[in-house]
Write a structure and sequence with these properties.
CATH architecture of chain A: Orthogonal Bundle
Structural class of chain B: mainly alpha
Number of helices of chain A: 12
CATH architecture of the largest domain in chain B: Orthogonal Bundle
Low-confidence stretches of chain A: none
CATH superfamily of chain A: MetI-like
Number of domains of chain B: 2
Order of helices and strands of chain B: HHHEEHHHHHHHHHHHH
CATH topology of chain A: MetI-like fold
Strand content of chain A: under 5%
Helix content of chain A: over 70%
CATH class of chain A: Mainly Alpha
Number of strands of chain B: 2
Radius of gyration of chain B: 25 Å
Oligomer: heterodimer
Strand order of the largest sheet of chain B: 1-2
Mean pLDDT of chain A: 90
Strand content of chain B: under 5%
CATH topology of the largest domain in chain B: MetI-like fold
Largest sheet of chain B: 2 strands, antiparallel
Structural class of chain A: mainly alpha
Distance between the termini of chain A: 33 Å
Radius of gyration of chain A: 23 Å
Largest interface: A-B, 97 and 106 residues
Mean pLDDT of chain B: 86
Number of strands of chain A: 0
Chain lengths: 266, 311
């Protein structure tokens, strides 16, 4: 389609303006992180300073551990349950599907209060489990929904052929269905990683021990304690955001497709 | 969908299903085995706490001693307490900023991108979608800096001779809520734009060419062709952004802590505040239950309206 030259120029200006607005806060923080002030020597040395002053080594390690456990466990559970609801037919599967659907929309605010008190009464608060298990539950809701949709559309004839060859349901899942599902599984993995890494409310409520704080939580605490300047806080913020942003830059198709299709399929 | 419906409606047609779904002898219940681990975690850490939340909401409990039965008192308080009513009111104001504004801006942007074959579309999409992947805590830290008394926004206002408007934006009684809202607008606009753009990409370009032969301008094109064709995407965009507006916890917690006064307090912040700072566990659960009900109701309504208007 063709549009006039004047209109085209105006379009580019509008798009440029919006691109600038979209990255401005991000650039603000990166710019500040490299600056100088009382505590900050300036340049990349600021990150080193923030790393020590803000305990970010601990926070990032906890975040990495939490994300890794949630991603691995939730993906495996979702593959199994998505397979069951998408490719195996059994009584109650429709009801189960709606049950999982409920969890996609449910806000963490609705469950976090009783969860805290119940986990406290069994001595699980202030442990990694209290941070990990609720997030696995949340992810499994979306993951089941996502992979069920995928397995429903995958080739029935291949499954039938494998069955005629006498393959068990387990072999069919791992040998026939999972290999071509790799892109869908990658999407699930990157979305889960992002949601878990960025999660705030659940770790805020569940842990008080500094060594169990995840990166976003650590940043919020650093902001509360450290008020002398903005440079080290900005450097800490960059450290917290960087892992997900890096994964996004390499796998952005998966982020965009996942967030859009995941929503559309609802 | 067809197959599950059949299984549900006519569970007695065993032979018909068995032929379709597996060799004879494969146990029918094996599906349950595959669902069981996921269902166990989901049930224990999501469904059970939800039931407990409803249960707690009928009690008056400080989190330490023994709770006393309170009936519907907590729900009455949600409806009557001035501060809590304001919190729900703030959430509805935030919906304008998180959902309506991004929808208007996103529609315009996507229409421009769709109509004109601009170069660098992929780059633009990467950039406007970027806010979605940045942790909300980082977003809040960054915007606090922008809104600070000596922050970038006031610098810009000073540079263009509008010093008079400069203020501590997040500390201003009337402007703090819109200031928080605009962070949401910034956050959601990219998502909405990319979502609508995907929908517009599926519209048959011949429709536009025919419209142009009839002398339709860009606005006419948008109203007559584009908007009717992307109703489904608009419904999805509204659902996502409205839910995001109602679930704004981390942004408020880090940017304002609900202040000044309780000018930026929202229900999800009140859940945390009442339960863990004021020790009113029952009330917090009642707020959480009401919030969940509102989220379900709104997304149900949006989906219904979106479905019905589907051609």
């Amino acid at each position: 389609m063709r549009v006039g030259r004047g209109e085209q120029t105006a379009n580019y200006l509008i798009l440029l303006a919006f691109a600038v607005v979209a990255v401005w806060p991000v650039l603000t923080i990166v710019g500040s992180a490299l600056g100088k002030d009382g505590d900050a020597p300036g340049g990349l040395a600021n990150f080193h300073r923030a790393w020590d002053a803000g305990h970010f080594a601990t926070y990032l390690r906890t975040s990495l551990l939490v994300s890794a456990i949630v991603v691995v466990v939730a993906t495996l559970l979702s593959i199994a349950s998505g397979y069951a609801l998408g490719a195996l037919r059994f009584r109650g599967s429709t009801a189960l599907f709606y049950l999982f659907l409920l969890g996609i929309m449910m806000p963490a605010e609705a469950i976090v209060v009783p969860l805290y008190f119940d986990l406290r009464s069994v001595g699980l608060t202030d442990t990694l489990w209290a941070v990990v298990l609720p997030q696995i539950a949340q992810t499994v809701a979306f993951g089941t929904f996502w992979l069920r949709a995928y397995f429903r559309t995958s080739s029935r004839s291949m499954v039938e052929a494998a069955r005629l060859d006498g393959a068990s349901s387990w072999t069919i899942l791992w040998r026939v269905l999972v290999p071509p599902a790799r892109p869908a599984i990658t999407t699930l993995v990157v979305l889960t990683f992002m949601w878990t890494w960025n999660e705030f409310l659940i770790p805020l409520v569940m842990v008080t021990d500094d060594s169990l704080r995840t990166a976003p939580l650590g940043l919020a605490f650093f902001q509360g304690q450290y008020t002398q300047g903005f440079t080290l806080l900005a450097a800490g913020a960059v450290l917290v955001a960087l892992p997900v942003v890096l994964v996004y830059l390499f796998l952005q198709r998966h982020f965009i497709a996942g967030m859009l299709e995941g929503a559309v399929r609802e | 969908m067809a197959t599950t419906t059949r299984a549900q409606v006519a569970p007695t047609t065993r032979t018909g299903r068995a032929r379709r779904s597996g060799p004879p002898g494969e146990p029918r219940a094996i599906g349950w085995l595959y669902v069981a681990p996921a269902l166990l975690v989901y049930g224990a850490f999501l469904l059970y706490p939800l039931v407990r939340s409803v249960q707690f909401s009928f009690y008056d409990w400080d989190g330490l001693g023994v709770g006393t039965w309170a009936g519907l008192d907590n729900y009455r308080e949600v409806l009557r307490d001035e501060g809590l009513r304001q919190a729900f009111g703030h959430a509805f104001v935030l919906m304008l900023f998180f959902a309506v504004l991004p929808l208007v801006i996103g529609t315009a942007l996507a229409a421009i991108l769709n109509r004109a074959r601009v170069r660098g579309l992929g780059f633009f999409r990467t950039v406007v979608f970027l806010p979605q992947v940045v942790a909300m805590v980082v977003v809040a830290v960054s915007w606090r800096r922008i809104y600070a008394p000596d922050g970038t926004l006031n610098d810009v206002l000073g540079a263009i001779g509008l010093d008079g408007l400069a203020r501590a934006w997040l500390g201003d009684y009337t402007l703090a809520l819109p200031a928080v809202g605009l962070i949401g607008t910034w956050f959601e606009t990219g998502l909405v734009t990319v979502l609508l753009l995907a929908g517009m990409g599926r519209i048959d370009t011949q429709l536009y060419e025919a419209a142009r032969l009839d002398g339709a301008g860009p606005v006419r094109e948008l109203l007559a062709i584009t908007l009717p064709a992307i109703r489904g995407e608009i419904a999805v965009a509204l659902t996502l952004t409205v839910i995001a507006a109602l679930k704004t916890f981390d942004l408020v917690y880090v940017a304002t802590k609900g202040g000044p006064g309780n000018q930026t307090s929202v229900p999800s912040y009140e859940v945390y505040h009442q339960a863990f700072e004021l020790g009113r566990v029952g009330l917090a659960c009642a707020i959480g239950v009401v919030l969940t009900a509102v989220i379900f109701l709104i997304s149900f309504l949006i989906t219904r309206v979106g479905d019905r208007s589907e051609p």
